[in-house]
Amino acid sequence: VKRSEDPHFEEYYLKQIPSTPEQIQTSNDVIQEGLYNMGLILKDKLEDFDAANMEFKELLERYPDNTYRLDVYYNLYLLCMRTDQVAEAEKWRGLILSDFAESKYGIAMKDPAYLDNLKQMGKVQEQLYAETYDNYLNNNNEAVHEAYAEMMRRYPLSKLMPKFMFIDALAYVTQKNYDKFKEVLKEMLERYPETDITPTASAIMKHVKAGRQLAGGGSNARGMMWTSVALTNDTTGKEASDKQFADIKSTANKPQVFVLVYSTDSIDSNILLYELARHNFRSFNVRDYDLEKMTFGSMGLLVVKGFANYPELISYRTVFDAA
């Protein structure tokens, strides 16, 4: 056995030292990732703030232009605020604003009261979303757009932002501003590719790209995805007529979904999910249907997936109605 292949000899380890530019770059990437993740573990899991501070700063010292720089600045800001080092925290906030002004953190931290907003934002955001949803249902579209703009200004990192963007987009449909609708919906899908409303938004965008026209005008009905965003097969560019929905015949052999719409004020979504899962298990023991919950203000959706075609959906509906 060669000495370079035997771990008992130094040649074995010397052989593994990076020598080419590619190997050195790979080694540096691994070290940067390790320092960053170590800092996160020390900060979030072990709450050893001094050690986390050291790891983050070592990363910045050894690799000033590392790919984690924005997140390191942000974590150092949070560390300093948590340990009452306000002046030091302002230093990291300043670096975020100067070097990453257009990032999600940069936009959010333009407000000096960012941390106070962060602490209060959960309750405030939920209240604002409820008000926005009510405005949507009451056809107050300008208030919907204003609320979305306020969220972008005050809470751009909010977990509710996808829902605000979705309602903002839908409000443009009844205003017949289809270009703006597509613009906002496209931005939402790019920024939030994995949310509970992504499948719905993606399906709408897919139909729009296929040339189908949106049925605009009228009011923002409660069943917003089936009324205010109804899609037609009319590709002439004219407004949709009385026939707002795609012809079932044209989609009968394609996968279908079954949707239950309910009020979250009067129905417990978890109980509904349990009961429907139990119904499916008892009635269709050779089939496995996927269930997905969605919530839009006071409206809840429970989506059943797994129907290969329209006849399968009708069969399921027949059994469901007879239960």
What does this protein look like?
The chain is mainly α and 323 residues long. It has 3 domains: 3-110, Serine Threonine Protein Phosphatase 5, Tetratricopeptide repeat, CATH 1.25.40; 118-246, Serine Threonine Protein Phosphatase 5, Tetratricopeptide repeat (Alpha Horseshoe), CATH 1.25.40; 250-322, Alpha-Beta Plaits. The protein contains 14 helices and 3 strands. Strands 1-3-2 form a 3-stranded antiparallel beta sheet. The chain is extended, with a radius of gyration of 26 Å. It starts with 9 loop residues before the first helix and ends with a helix. 24% of the residues are buried.
- CATH homology superfamily name of the largest domain: Tetratricopeptide repeat domain
Principal-axis shape equals extended
The CATH class of the largest domain is Mainly Alpha
Q: Give the averaged pLDDT, no decimals.
A: 82
Short recap of the structure:
With 323 residues, the protein is mostly helical. Helices cover 58% and strands 7% of the residues.
Summarize the topology.
Layout: H1 10-14, H2 21-45, H3 49-62, H4 69-82, H5 86-99, H6 104-108, H7 114-137, H8 141-154, H9 161-174, H10 178-191, H11 198-209, H12 248-251, E1 256-263, H13 269-283, E2 290-296, E3 299-307, H14 310-322
Antiparallel strand pairs: 1-3, 2-3
Helix pairs in contact: 2-3, 3-4, 4-5, 7-8, 7-9, 8-9, 9-10, 10-11
